[in-house]
Amino acid sequence: MPSKDEEKTLSVFKTIMYPYLKIIRPLNILIAALSVFIAAFLSLNFHFSTQLVLAMLVVAFVTAGANVINDVFDFDIDRINRPSRILPAGRMTVNRARLYYYVLNATALVIGLWLPPMLETIAAMAIVTLYIYSRYWKKMVLIGNMSVALISAITFLYGALAVNDIRAGLYPAIFAFFFHFGREVIKDMQDVNGDVQNGAITFVGKYGNQRALVLINVVFFLLICFLFLPFLQNIYNIYYIYIVVPGVAAVLIALAVYIWNFRTAAALSLASMILKIDMLIGLIAIYAGGKL
User: Fold this and answer.
1) Could you tell me which of 111, 134, 151 has the C-alpha nearest to residue 28?
2) 292 residues of the chain, pLDDT tens digit each
3) Residue 231 belongs to domain spanning
4) Does a structural domain hold residue 193?
């Protein structure tokens, strides 16, 4: 049995610290930081350095800030689609979330002062882009989806630039673009009711689930095709194929079939979560294929 002091500490964590951790989505941050590291790791110039650690921290804080401001602007939508989230559940006020957003981005920019000017500029542009996305582009047909996919792709290029070898991040960036684009459309299918009621015009809201599913299948098909290119060009080794075929390509095919037949909110939520986990498998495949 926990002591009274332990119970009190746990209670303080749940009421004060937990909302600040939950709203930034730690798994998303982990994936973003690992993306930077793996892109750098693939380079012949790779060496574990302070600059690389700082680049990972910048991306982590920018990602955290993006998640917070996204929830701020999605407050009304989340009251319909995800009432258990931190803001609609009343675990944190919108004003406090805005302040938290500013602190996270300020921290990212301060850390970036110790990085080359190009990396600091990219971080600043990403912050601005993600803010515009959350406030405006997310409610526009495909513009929001493409914005998230592009920022996700740039994360790999950012990691490669941290070791002065942008080529190392090119294929991972392509994979990330298509992967996130498809996942964003699935999330739009999941959120369509709240989006429509709050004036957000997504691809799903305008053209319906059937066409959205066709779009997802096309995006995943293109991604699967691109997955084989670095192996065929002898950029990644056979270990990459051993992992990426069953761990990514097969999962994408299975999920495409699954959501085509089951379009409930629960099914779409499960598909979105599986794709998030599958990102980690993709990173492992790239890691193994690049150096082992």
Assistant:
1) 151
2) 556 555 566 666 566 788 999 999 999 999 999 999 999 999 888 888 999 999 999 999 999 999 999 999 988 888 887 888 899 988 999 999 999 999 999 999 999 999 999 999 999 999 999 999 998 888 788 888 999 999 999 999 999 999 999 999 999 999 999 999 999 999 888 887 776 677 777 888 888 889 999 999 999 999 999 999 999 999 999 999 999 999 999 999 999 999 998 888 888 889 989 998 999 999 999 999 986 4
3) 17-291
4) yes
Q: Is residue 9 part of a domain?
A: no
Domain of residue 122, CATH code: 1.10.357.140
User: Does residue 11 fall inside a structural domain?
Assistant: no
N-to-C CA span, the chain: 47
Residue 250, domain member (yes or no): yes
Domain count, the chain: 1
